[in-house]
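Q: Predict the assembly, please.
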Amino acid sequence: MGDIYDNVMELARRRGFVWPSSECYGAVAGFIDYGPLGAMLKRKIENIWRDFYIIREGYYEIEAPTIGVESIYVASGHVKGFADKMYQCPSCKEYSRADHIAEEHGTANADTLSPEALADIINGLPCPSCGEKIENAAVFYFNLMFQTTIGPGSQRKGYLRPETAQGIFTDFNRLARFYRDKLPFGAVQVGKSYRNEISPRQGMIRLREFTQAEAEIFIHPDHKEHPDFSRYADYSIPLWGQTQQMQDIKPITVSMREAVDSGLVANEYVAYYIALTHEFLMKVGINGDKLRFRQHLPTECAHYALDCWDAEIFSGRFGWVETVGIADRTDYDLKAHAKGSGDNFTVFIPYENVRRENRRIVVPNMGALGPQYREKAKAVADALKYSAPGPDGATITLDGKEIFIPPELYQIREETIEVRGEEVMPHVVEPSYGIDRILYCTLEHSYEEEDVDGEIRKVLHLNPAVAPVQAAVFPLMNKDGLDTIARTLSIDIQKHGILSQYDDNGAIGRRYRRQDEIGTPYTITIDYDSLEDNTVTLRDRDSMQQVRLPVTLVPETLTRLIHGTLPFSEAGSKI
RNA sequence: GCACCGAUGGUCUAGUGGUAUGACUUUGGCCUUCCAAGCCAAUAGCCCGGGUUCAAUUCCCGGUCGGUGCACCA
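A: Predicted assembly structure:
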């Protein structure tokens, strides 16, 4: 058999976690279906994420369309920046990046050139794949966004969103009102994003349609201290900063407090979400030894981002996989949309104390200015307002000429004004999670082939918090009333909101193995003792240990086990 | 997208110019007092399109998907 990926995906297909999409018409690369158990697992991961960001952080979830009008993505930079300038070699039909070839032959900043200018440069150069001289090749944009048209007549261009973030930025002013105009605030979105990858390989790791969970947290640019930082101040995890990477040394384990104080991490907000991400990934079932936080190198960090860290998870097939990005994006996005839309993307922040400022203002005397300057009177008046008049009069510049304005044409008024605050464009801290990648890594880290008495036992050691099926109930024998008790118990468990499967098919051992394979953490078996004393056995998936407890206590016990408030060893009496 | 390799029940596979082997799984039954036991039976397959041929799962061409290398990868 193949490697860990092959084994995990084989199980995932067979048991209904992940399937190739639209298989009956031929699957399409870059798309997957989540089967019954996969959809359940994914939803549980997303809901744990919601526990962290919505319930704990208080950032409410919104839901924007997956199709956005072109202007959004012109403003965000995706129409330009998400497009690669490509050309196709006329000889070998290879597609390559035109700007890369130009740069290799000495053109600096080739990516900023127009397609036409680039075409002029590369025509005549040798093709990097076949070596033939490039002739008459056109340079065109290949945009990673899926394009569509909106409405009949199809005049309005739209794009499938390449990230969920923009929907939050475009709602900024509504959100600011919702949060009653106070910083910080945040909003989250969990949903599909689309990127028309040129060549999506690597199965679930690079999809054309994928699920993101993103939070956009709007903070005051001068106050990047997280109000709840104490929660993670002592949280210590290995961080692999730029310096360590460039000096080729290992990540250093520090507390978030130290990380911020030493300047390793830009500010408390970024550090806080690094720690929160660590806690979240552990909760979901990622192996902590296969998790690291890596800072973007200056070359890979977006030019506007102040600091950017990736949570990388180690996969036996793919190596270190980027699963979460945490970035301080400054005011880049809001600025872009302010420019693009003409709206203000600011919050009015009152000062603690109202500031009184003395001001001299120049009030033009229009009654006198009008007859004297005629059509220029308005321009003169405007210029006067910004001038600094001396005792004899004011000198202004109009159309390049200096004009002297005597004092009788204006008044100077001294006044005290109250400045109550200022308009602030917030900075954005963005933790962005790739749910599909996290789900795959969870499966891979959970997967184990264990040797039990010479047989291979395949187990998914899924955390009970994410396991799609939480419990299973078996009658030891499908007769003598054992099955009746089992069915009754099964229904009782379901009434407590626990998803449990009833199974009486085949040998008991086979039934345990089935549940092991899909990661069901607990199984209950009704045996002949149950008929005598109303007790049942409860089996722990990972240890295969069993305890005995009264049947009436089962639902309550399961609930506590699943929530992690009861260790298995205390769930009943040892057998 | 290019090059090379691959594709046979749900899974893993044998094999073939004349519709296909075995195992596991699944379902039903018998048996069975706790970890894939045994017995009987059943269900289920040649990736898609075109060509050659009396006949194609098999040969040829194209495509799809998957793997590897190159290019690409917010």
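Chain A has a mean pLDDT of 88. Chain A is about 30% helix and 30% strand.
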